[in-house]
Write a structure and sequence with these properties.
Layout (H helix, E strand, L loop, with lengths): L5 H19 L9 H6 L3 H16 L3 E8 L2 E7 L5 E3 L1 H8 L3 E5 L5 E8 L3 E7 L7 E8 L7 H20 L2 H17 L5 H15 L2 E10 L4 E7 L2 E10 L3 H9 L10 H8 L6 E7 L6 E10 L7 H45 L5 H16 L1 E10 L4 E4 L2 E2 L21 E4 L3 H9 L3 E3 L11 H6 L6 E7 L5 E10 L7 H43 L5 H7 L26 H14 L2 H4 L4 H13 L9 H17 L8 H13 L9 H6 L3 H6 L5 H14 L12 H16 L3 H17 L6 H16 L7 H24 L15 H23 L4 H23 L13 H7 L5
Antiparallel strand pairs: 1-2, 1-7, 2-3, 4-5, 5-6, 6-7, 8-9, 8-12, 9-10, 11-12, 13-14, 13-15, 13-19, 14-16, 17-18, 18-19
Helix pairs in contact: 1-5, 3-5, 6-10, 7-10, 10-11, 10-14, 11-14, 15-18, 16-18, 16-19, 19-20, 19-26, 20-24, 20-26, 23-24, 24-26, 25-26, 25-28, 26-28, 28-29
Length: 891
């Protein structure tokens, strides 16, 4: 027998206590059983110590021990024979809320049964930390006494710590650590971060007997959780999830591993692209900050047993040793991506700044680059029109999404020139006003999105990224709207970051392009003004005074048939044409209606006459003929009872101004020759027609020439809009576009209360006036054709000198004038007069003369071929004698 000094015994016990605390990671109270628990190394020893202790505490002889998992409390392993048993009784007791919770730390709690049934008491010893779902269940039968609850609690704390230490030191855990070391060595030889993730996924899948595995990376900067690799497959696009909600957001927030419920399986099934029966999600936490930096997801555990704490330990062992290597590779990958992004931005900047001379080309380049940069299906760019308080889109890549206030049926998307929407409406409008990016994952759920365009076109807009384009002063100059992320469910925060960087280059380039265009237009206008000043002379005041009628004019001053369709206005003497113009305004009551001063009207007409050059056909004589036919239509068709006085004066004024400063060449020639006019107007189309209107405005703005000066502001604005509309209608291309609508009006009947139909009628009347030489007697029609083709062939000669190949209608060497004239009258002129005659039967006589002239041209063509006459650029063979012989039966 020997004695141990008390000081030595206390020191020994403290040493044992420290070992126990180090192994469990917990601060423990001390009991007499601590020495036995500290020396315990196997579950068999632990269960035996616990049985002995419970036997003494409860004065019981029969105590059984089972091992189970809280996640599957219907399957128990008998520790006495290692057999697995199914016990509904045990399971029901485990599931009953009869457990007293005893807190061990912030993360762990112990469960103690406070009651029993039929002399049976249940006690559990739980694992701690990652083993919190593992437990030993002790069943005490026929207890003879009540235990000391505080002593029992302390014992259970020690037993749980011992149980956790045994699980950590199990062969499986040691093997996991050894395998993790070997894996970390292999990861160093991986080529990139994706290759590393494939290796980790494969290893974790095998270690945990799972069907598949993936690692999600948490980016606190981008506020997103991303996954690029699932199993052995590198995804075509990153799967992105929010960091503040959903299954993965919950894991980030709590920092604890979970086995997802059935309701939470949808995200995993979308991620793994397979049905998920069981899953385990384990956070990877930064050792310094404690924040979640990654999530390991396992799915479909093979075998009958579900995921356990052993799987958590295996994953923790692998990730603790491999995360540093993976993190370094991800950082390198991020740096490479940033460098590639910088190179792409520099290339984009080079492309954009090479397009400054053409805004449309620049916008097209911006659309293409923005779409490619973000993998978007479609893109549109709107420019801010601050004066009109509108957003303007002139270049389209697909269909833009507009607002409910705009009817998609009014737009012909295939031939669209531009779309204007109010500045404050819709998604693009909100971005333009606020200057902030909008990333909409579900377009149809957004209150500002309008589905009408999708319904009209069949296109489906899923998601939208709309970002502002600002200049160097931070002022919004445009808005870019991207639709439908191609590789991904929606646009990500990374796309937002790219778009905002891209917007910097776009904003500066657009600002410089608009400035360049403004300077270029100013230069062109200056050149044009100098050219006009050189060519034109101001109207002398004496000329104005002499041209003012001294007495009231009557039709007798001109011709008895002046107000009839048969009268040829080209026969009127030149010195009477200005007076005739004034009389037409007066006869229609426009002078008194709009209080036009006579001196102003005379000055205006003299300036208009000065505004015409002297090409063979498009001169003031042609303008006077067109105005005369407009007067005849207004008077004989009684348009003043069908149209407003504003519309009548707009038609009459537009007809006399419609070819101001015509150069004897067509629109195509202006564009191909890169003329000053093309520089000003080619981006809008109808180059010459826009120039004619601009010249009309110049004359109206000249002092003493504004015949609309006594109108109200509303009347003035409306009249100018109508004049512009009517002059632009003289472009044959515009006429051919509206022809189907006019045919429809003939079929269904005209509704003169419809503003759109009234404007179509004005356009039709203007075209009829412009071609009115074809409605006169044969002599007038024939002589006019000579003038027209003389002008056409002159243009063809210029094109040849420029090295171009003119169209046949302009080529004197290839043109057959009778045949060309027949084609023109059949396909252009005849439909105009047929429609107008159908709407106004009194106009039938005009249509009949057109038909008669077509018949004459056919006879000319037939005689032309029968005589074997060669192609000629002249109609000199159409002499009076030739006409008498050819049309003798028609006289």
């Amino acid at each position: 027998m020997f004695f141990v000094a008390p000081q030595l015994l206390v020191g020994l016990l403290n040493y044992i206590r420290r070992r126990l605390e180090e192994s469990s990671g917990r601060s423990l109270q001390w009991t007499e059983s601590s020495i036995e628990l500290c020396q315990c190394t196997t579950l068999s020893q632990l269960s035996e110590i616990c049985r002995n202790y419970f036997s003494q505490c409860f004065c019981a002889n029969a105590i059984h021990c089972f091992e189970f998992n809280w996640k599957n409390p219907q399957r128990f392993t008998d520790r006495s024979n290692r057999n697995e048993v199914h016990s509904d009784v045990l399971g029901s007791w485990v599931n009953k809320p009869l457990w007293k919770k005893v807190t061990v730390s912030e993360d762990d709690e112990l469960s103690i049964c406070i009651g029993g049934q039929q002399d049976v008491t249940f006690i559990t010893v739980n694992g701690l930390g990652p083993f919190c779902n593992s437990a030993l269940l002790f069943v005490v039968c026929q207890a003879g006494c009540e235990p000391n609850s505080s002593a029992l609690t302390v014992f259970l704390q020690h037993a749980s710590a011992c149980y956790t230490r045994i699980l950590q030191q199990s062969p499986d855990a040691s093997q996991n650590n050894q395998t993790a070391v070997m894996l970390s060595d292999d990861l160093i030889n991986a080529t990139d971060a994706n290759d590393m993730q494939i290796m980790l996924n494969t290893h974790l899948r095998d270690q945990t007997s799972s069907e598949d595995c993936c690692i999600l990376l948490v980016s606190q900067e981008m506020n997103q959780i991303m996954c690029q690799v699932v199993g052995k497959h590198i995804l075509d696009f990153e799967m992105c999830y929010p960091v503040n909600n959903g299954l993965f957001g919950k894991i980030c927030e709590k920092g604890q591993w979970i086995i997802p419920s059935e309701k939470e399986m949808s995200d995993l099934e979308a991620l793994f692209s397979t049905p998920v029966q069981s899953a385990l999600c384990i956070p990877v936490r930064d050792k310094m900050s404690g924040k979640t930096i990654g999530i390991v997801c396992l799915c479909n555990k093979t075998g009958s047993q579900g995921y356990t704490a052993t799987d958590v330990v295996a994953v923790d062992a692998v990730m603790s040793r491999s995360w540093t290597v993976l993190s370094s590779s991800l950082t390198l990958q991020k740096e490479k991506k940033a460098r590639s992004e910088c190179e792409a931005m520099l290339l984009i900047a080079r492309k954009l700044f090479s397009r400054l001379d053409d805004v449309s080309m620049l916008l097209g380049e911006i659309i293409q680059e923005a779409r490619c940069l973000t993998n978007a299906e479609r893109c549109s760019v709107f420019l801010v029109d601050n004066e009109a308080q509108e957003l303007v889109a002139k270049v389209f890549d697909g269909i833009v999404t507009m607002d409910e206030s705009l009817d998609p049926k009014q737009y012909d998307f295939e031939n669209m020139n531009e779309v204007r929407i109010p500045l404050e409406q819709g998604i693009a409008g909100q971005v333009a006003v606020t200057g902030k990016t909008l990333n909409i994952s579900d377009a149809y759920a957004h209150p500002l999105f309008y589905r009408g365009i999708d319904n009209a076109t069949g296109f489906r807009t899923r998601n939208i990224l709309c970002f502002p384009i600002k200049d160097h002063n931070g002022v919004v100059v445009g808005v870019s709207q991207l639709c439908n992320k191609i590789k991904g469910s929606c646009f990500t925060s990374y796309d937002e970051e790219l778009a905002e960087k891209f917007a910097v280059f776009s904003g500066i380039s657009i600002s410089h392009s608009l400035l360049y265009k403004e300077v270029e237009e100013s230069h062109c206008r200056s050149r044009l003004a100098n050219e006009l000043m050189t060519y034109h002379m101001k109207v002398d005041k004496e000329d104005v005074k002499k041209s003012i009628p001294r007495s009231s004019l009557t039709m007798a001053n001109f011709h008895p048939d002046f107000d009839k369709f048969v009268y040829p206005p080209r026969l009127l003497e030149n010195n009477l044409k200005i007076k005739a113009c004034i009389w037409m305004y007066e006869d229609l009551g426009l002078i008194s209606k709009f209080h036009i001063p006579m001196r102003t009207l005379v000055h205006f007409m003299l300036m208009v006459r000065k505004g015409y050059r002297d090409p063979p056909y498009h001169n003031f004589d042609h303008a006077f003929s067109v105005m005369h036919h407009a007067y005849l239509i207004a008077k004989n068709l009684q348009l003043n009872s069908k149209l407003s006085d504003l519309e009548v004066i707009a038609l009459l004024t537009a007809s006399i101004c419609h070819d101001l400063d015509h150069r004897g060449t067509n629109n195509a020639f202006q564009v191909n020759s890169h003329s000053v006019l093309a520089s000003l107007y080619s981006s809008e189309g109808s180059v010459l027609e826009r120039h004619h209107f601009a010249q009309a405005m110049c004359i109206l703005n000249t002092s003493g020439c504004n015949i609309f000066e006594n109108m109200s502001r509303k009347e003035y604005v409306r009249t100018l809009d109508l004049v512009k509309h009517i002059i632009l209608a003289t472009d044959v291309a515009s006429h051919l576009q509206i022809l189907p609508q006019l045919e429809k009006i003939v079929e269904e009947g005209m509704d003169l209360t419809n503003t759109c139909q009234r404007e179509l009628l004005l356009a039709l009347c203007m075209t009829a006036c412009d071609l009115s030489d074809q409605t006169k007697q044969w002599e007038t029609t024939k002589n006019t054709a000579k003038l027209i083709y003389k002008e056409f062939f002159s243009q063809g000669d210029m094109e040849k000198r420029m090295g171009n190949n003119p169209e046949i209608i302009h080529d004197r060497e290839r043109a057959c004038v009778p045949q060309l004239q027949i084609n023109f009258m059949l396909h252009i002129a005849q439909p105009v007069y047929r429609i107008l005659a159908a709407l106004f039967p009194v106009y039938g006589e005009v249509y009949q003369r057109v038909q008669l002239n077509i018949g004459r041209w056919r006879r000319v063509e037939k005689e032309f071929k029968s005589r074997g006459l060669p192609n000629t650029d002249s109609l000199d063979f159409l002499t009076d004698e030739f006409d008498r012989d050819l049309f003798e039966d028609l006289e």
